[in-house]
Write a sequence for this structure.
C-alpha cells in the first residue's frame, strides 16, 4: 500500500483539524478537510531522529549548530538552485509570528500594508492587530486561473504603501508565480520604495511543469529589498513543532529584524522543531517527491470527478500547495447558505472562502492532503447533497 493511502486516526490527539470540529463548525461528525496540515505521517527518518532524541530524556536549552544551518543552505541549493549564506538565516517560531515581527519591525502604526486577495487570512489579522492599514489588490480570475492585476497593484503601491506581503505559491488559489510575474512585482516594490515580504511556506509542494522561484533569487537589487519566509511545516507535516526560517540578505534589514526578536525575548528554539527541520531537509527529499505526485494525482482525480458529477462547482486550476479552491458561485447560494450546505448537507468541514478577503465570496477551500479513500468519501457525500439540491430545485 502507498504510505499516503493509509488512513491515520488523528482524533483525541489534541489535533486542531479533527478534535475541534464542534467548536468551529457546530458538529463533530464531519469529514475534516479544512486547516492546512496533512493527514500523513512525517517522513520515517524524521520520526526516527525525534524518537532518538526522546530516548535521551533530557530536554534542556538547545542551540543551533552548523549542521542545522547547512541543512537549510543545502535545501535551498538543491530544490531551488539558490545559494544563500548562513548569516542570512534567522529562525522564528512559525511564519505567522514572523509576519507579525516583520510588520512590527519595518512599519509603524497606521502605515499601509498591501496584500493580494483572496489570500491566507492571518495576513489580515497580523496587519489589523498591529494597527496598520490594510490595503488590498484583488487578483483576477481569468477562466479557471488567477492572475495578478498589475495596473491596480501599481496604483495601490504608489499611494504610500510601506510593505507588501506576497503569498508565493499562493494560498488559497494555488498559483505558482512565474519569474516574469515575480520580477514585475518586485520591480514595482523597488520603484515605489515598498518592502517586499514573501511568505514562501508552500514553496516545496509544486506540481510538475511548474517551478518555484524565491523572490531574492531574481536579482541582487531585489534581494536587498525583500525578506523571505520558509518552513518545513507544510512540506513535512511538522506544523506543531513551531519552527521556521526567515532569509534576509540585507544586513541592515536583518539586524533590525533580530532586534525585534531580542526585544521580545525570542532566542533559542523548540528542541524538537530544530531536530525535525534538520532531519527533514537532510533526508526528506525522496519522501517529498512521492508526496507531490500523490497530491497532484488527488487534484487530477477531484477535478475529473467534479466535472463529471457536480457540474455547478468549478475546480480552479492548481499549480502547487495541497489546498484546492472551489468556485461554487453557480449554486446561487448566499455565503452563509453555501457554508451551511457543505456542513449540514454534505457533512464536510471546509474553509469558508469569504474569510480569505475580497474575491472569496462564493468559494470554498478544500485540503487535498489526505488519503484518496477519504477524498472519495468526501466527494460521494458532496455528490449526494448536490443531487438532492438539484432535485429540489427542479421540482420548484
Amino acid at each position: 500500500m502507498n504510505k499516503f493511502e493509509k488512513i491515520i486516526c488523528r482524533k483525541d490527539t489534541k489535533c486542531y483539524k479533527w478534535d475541534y470540529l464542534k467548536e468551529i463548525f457546530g458538529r463533530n461528525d464531519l469529514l475534516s478537510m479544512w486547516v492546512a496540515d496533512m493527514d500523513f505521517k512525517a517522513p520515517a527518518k524524521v520520526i526516527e531522529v525525534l524518537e532518538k532524541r526522546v530516548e535521551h530524556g533530557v530536554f534542556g536549552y538547545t542551540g543551533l549548530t552548523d549542521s542545522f544551518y547547512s541543512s537549510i543552505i543545502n535545501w535551498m541549493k538543491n530544490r531551488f538552485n539558490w545559494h544563500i549564506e548562513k548569516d542570512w538565516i534567522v529562525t522564528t517560531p512559525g511564519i505567522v509570528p514572523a509576519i507579525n515581527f516583520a510588520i512590527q519591525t519595518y512599519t509603524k502604526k497606521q502605515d499601509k500594508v498591501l496584500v493580494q486577495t483572496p489570500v491566507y487570512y492571518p495576513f489580515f489579522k497580523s496587519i489589523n492587530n498591529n494597527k496598520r492599514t490594510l490595503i488590498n489588490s484583488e487578483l483576477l480570475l481569468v477562466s479557471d486561473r488567477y492572475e495578478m492585476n498589475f495596473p491596480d497593484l501599481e496604483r495601490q503601491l504608489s499611494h504610500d504603501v510601506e510593505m507588501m506581503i506576497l503569498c508565493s505559491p499562493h494560498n488559497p488559489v494555488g498559483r505558482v508565480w512565474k519569474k516574469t510575474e515575480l520580477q514585475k512585482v518586485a520591480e514595482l516594490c523597488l520603484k515605489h520604495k515598498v518592502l517586499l515580504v514573501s511568505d514562501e511556506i508552500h514553496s516545496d509542494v509544486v506540481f510538475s511543469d511548474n517551478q518555484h522561484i524565491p523572490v531574492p533569487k531574481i536579482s541582487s537589487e531585489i534581494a536587498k529589498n525583500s525578506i523571505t519566509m520558509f518552513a518545513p511545516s507544510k512540506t513535512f507535516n511538522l506544523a506543531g513543532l513551531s519552527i521556521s526560517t526567515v532569509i534576509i540578505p540585507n544586513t541592515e534589514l536583518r539586524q533590525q529584524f533580530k532586534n525585534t526578536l531580542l526585544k521580545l525575548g525570542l532566542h533559542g528554539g523548540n528542541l524538537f522543531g530544530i531536530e525535525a527541520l534538520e532531519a527533514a531537509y537532510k533526508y526528506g527529499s525522496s519522501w517529498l517527491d512521492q508526496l507531490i505526485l500523490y497530491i497532484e494525482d488527488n487534484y487530477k482525480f477531484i477535478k475529473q470527478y467534479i466535472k463529471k458529477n457536480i457540474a455547478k462547482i468549478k475546480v480552479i486550476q492548481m499549480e502547487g500547495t495541497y489546498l484546492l479552491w472551489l468556485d461554487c458561485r453557480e449554486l446561487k447560494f448566499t455565503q452563509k447558505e453555501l457554508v451551511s450546505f457543505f456542513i449540514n448537507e454534505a457533512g464536510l468541514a471546509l474553509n469558508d472562502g469569504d474569510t480569505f478577503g475580497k474575491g472569496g465570496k462564493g468559494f470554498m477551500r478544500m485540503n487535498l492532503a489526505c488519503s484518496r479513500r477519504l477524498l472519495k468519501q468526501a466527494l460521494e457525500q458532496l455528490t449526494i447533497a448536490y443531487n438532492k439540491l438539484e432535485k429540489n430545485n427542479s421540482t420548484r
User: Anything to note?
Assistant: The domain at 16-43+286-394 is CATH 3.90.1150.10 (Aspartate Aminotransferase, domain 1).
